[in-house]
Amino acid sequence: MQTHFSPDQLKDPLIAEADSILRACVHCGFCTATCPTFVLTGDERDSPRGRIWMMRELLERPESVTADTGIHLDRCLGCLSCTTTCPSGVDYPHLLDIGRAQLDKQVKRPMPDRLMRGFLAKTIPYAGRFHAMMRLAQIGRWFRWAMPARLRRMLDKVPEKMPRRPDPIGAKTAVYTPSKPTVMRVALLAGCAQRALNPDINASTIRLLNRLGVEVKVYAETHCCGALAHHIGAVDAAHESVKIAVHHWHGALKERAIDAIVVNASGCGTMVKDYGHMMQHDQEWSAKAAAVSAATCDITELLDRLNWQAATTPETRQTATETTLAYHSACSLQHGQKIHDLPLRLLRQAGFQVVQPRDGHLCCGSAGVYNLLQPELADGLKSRKTESLKATGAEVVAAGNIGCISQLNASDLPVRHTVELLDWVTGGEKPF
Ligand code: SF4
Ligand code: SF4
Q1: Among 27, 41, 156, 284, which residue's CB has the most CB atoms within a 10 Å radius?
Q2: Nearest ligand by distance to the CA of 34
Q3: Domains of the chain, first to last
């Protein structure tokens, strides 16, 4: 794609980066067919190609921005399906970051939208506050009839069942030591929303890793990776979380107190693996952030490095053989981190009968806080995904991200984290 930035504009490193990303796009349109929002609306402006064109206009001539630009950029899920499809390697996610930051400078959002984003940025990254908000929302559902339509749709997103309190893992810095000789030491990101919504995931992760001889350290200070603030456009809050996490993890890596950082929520993993890029223009933090990104792995990547199958027994493998599960490939894992086959392989090694739903490349509509900010599109994607998962005939669904798990979990088709299922076949409780 041709660009027309002035030499002055190109002195800004972000504009220079956007320029090189834009030039890589040949406008072929292959990405449109795999973009969930284009699939739903059929509108070119809701496709990656349309958004790339709009972002070029926005960045070249910021004064020319229209309300349409904001609407269609806000509708982007950030699912990154387009990056998997694109034959030219267009770095869409970083262009989107630059485009959205520019949009926020140019256009003042309507007051209700600003209030909502501010509220979410101050709530979700804190497990205690988020848990309290969800419990209140459960009560609020009794008064659903008196609420405006937008609030009603948000209340509908609150899970029927919530843990009584947030996951204690992560509330205090703690070391979980294996009862056998230690083969490795890792830091685990306990997370924010995950701790409020599902305490079983971190517990399963630690049990499984301890069983394999891995010592797990959880730092209370690194309670949030910054991804949710980043999705909302709260750049300062996101960078604050990044710096806190980098400070603690980089210090631990340098002192050789840990060998790796493991993440079991793939939305967070995608963010942490991108810290190096995010902080590239910050002299103080760039090298440390890059080191943290390089040491970070998804829980499935870590398990693949370990002899995890040694913890299974013929009996547990037999139990798994009797279970058919559908694997839901979270966008942040398959498109963001390019990890798709590995969790399938681990689940099959465990003995499970694993099936895959049709259109597995399409997002379930969760996408961070997208389901709260764009409920109509999110509901459309959720329905499509639920239908395709049910059509597999599976009795349980495995997924690697808390957002998808909360979005899709249902009493007639439970959705569990991959690590909960692997914990089960290595001696843990049955998770469904
Ligand atoms: S597939 Fe890639 S090169 Fe083609 S239009 Fe989409 S982003 Fe551009
Ligand atoms: S990130 Fe997802 S929703 Fe956004 S343009 Fe790419 S495929 Fe479409």
Answers
A1: 41
A2: 2
A3: 7-106 (1.10.1060.10), 309-424 (3.40.50.1860)
Determine the pLDDT at residue 318: 86
| Nearest listed ligand to the Cα of residue 365 | 2
Q: Which of 76, 83, 371, 384 to mutate to test the pocket of ligand 2 (most atoms within 8 A of CB)?
A: 76
Segments of 177-288 assigned E as strands: 184-189, 214-218, 260-263
**Quick one: 267 exposed, middle or buried, by C-beta within 10 A (0-12, 13-18, 19+)?**
buried
Question: What is residue 307's predicted lDDT score, i.e. its pLDDT?
Answer: 86
Q: Name the band, by pLDDT with cuts 50, 70 and 90, for residue 384.
A: very high
Which one of the ligands is nearest to 82 CA? 2
Q: Where does residue 288 rank: exposed (0-12), middle (13-18), buried (19+ CB within 10 A)?
A: buried
**Atom 6 of ligand 1: nearest residue by CA position:** 31
Give the helix/strand (H/E) hosting 324.
Answer: strand 324-327
CB of residue 95 inside a 6 A radius of ligand 1: no
The tens digit of pLDDT for each residue in 256-279 reads 999 999 999 999 999 999 999 999
Q: Is the pLDDT of residue 67 over 90?
A: no
Q: Which residue has the tokens 């547990």?
A: 316
The answer to whether the CB of 166 is under 6 A from ligand 1 is no
Confidence category of residue 372, pLDDT binned at 50, 70, 90:
confident
> pLDDT value at position 160?
79
Give me ligand 2 centre to Cα 65, in Å: 20
Given this model, what pLDDT does residue 153 score? 80
